[in-house]
Amino acid sequence: MKELTKAEEQVMQLLWQIQKGFVKDILEEMPEPKPAYNTVSTIVRILEKKGFVAYTAYGKTHEYYPLISKKEYSNYFLKNFVGSYFGGSFHKLVSFFARENDMDIHEFEEMMKYVERDIKEDNNQSSEEK
């Protein structure tokens, strides 16, 4: 998997949101000032070459959909980010986050409760899918 540029990531965020769509659908979701149609079309074709999207052809028109889920890319991106900036240590990332956001022990404990709840929910979803 390759890392996305900002423009590619913006298009992927929209495709993850709408699930599938034509270039005009992606363009409609973009904030003003909207880029040119050809710009979005070029970015989508780059994403296809990188293996992030595929399409269903309707004559000369293509309907695009993501091949890589947002969760898969988030996981890949975070691991690279932690590897590059924190020597691969999530402990160092959390310490940095807590220090930079001036968190006290109570706020940190609250954050840990959210993390524990999310992990339990993910584990429950995983066991239901089996």
In the sheet with the most strands, the strands line up as 1-2
Shape: elongated
Average residue-wise pLDDT: 92
The H-and-E topology, N to C, reads as HHHEEHHH
- Determine the number of helices (DSSP H or I, runs of at least 4 residues): 6
Distance between the termini: 26 Å
- How many E-type strands? 2
Alpha carbon gyration radius: 19 Å
Regions with pLDDT < 50 over 5+ consecutive residues? Answer: none
Helix content: 55-70%
Strand content is 5-15%
Provide a descriptive summary of the structure in words:
There is one protein chain. The protein has 130 residues and is mainly alpha-helical. Helix content is 66%, strand content 9%. It has six helices and two strands, in the order H-H-H-E-E-H-H-H. Strands 1-2 form a two-stranded antiparallel ribbon. Strand 1 and strand 2 (61-66) form a beta hairpin. The protein is elongated and about 60 Å long.
How would you briefly describe this protein structure?
With 130 residues, the chain is mostly helical. The protein is built from six helices and two strands, in the order αααββααα.
List key phrases describing it.
single chain; 130 residues; mainly alpha; 6 helices; 2 strands
Question: What layout of secondary structure does this protein have?
Answer:
Blueprint: H1 6-18, H2 23-29, H3 37-49, E1 53-58, E2 61-66, H4 70-86, H5 90-100, H6 105-129
Antiparallel strand pairs: 1-2
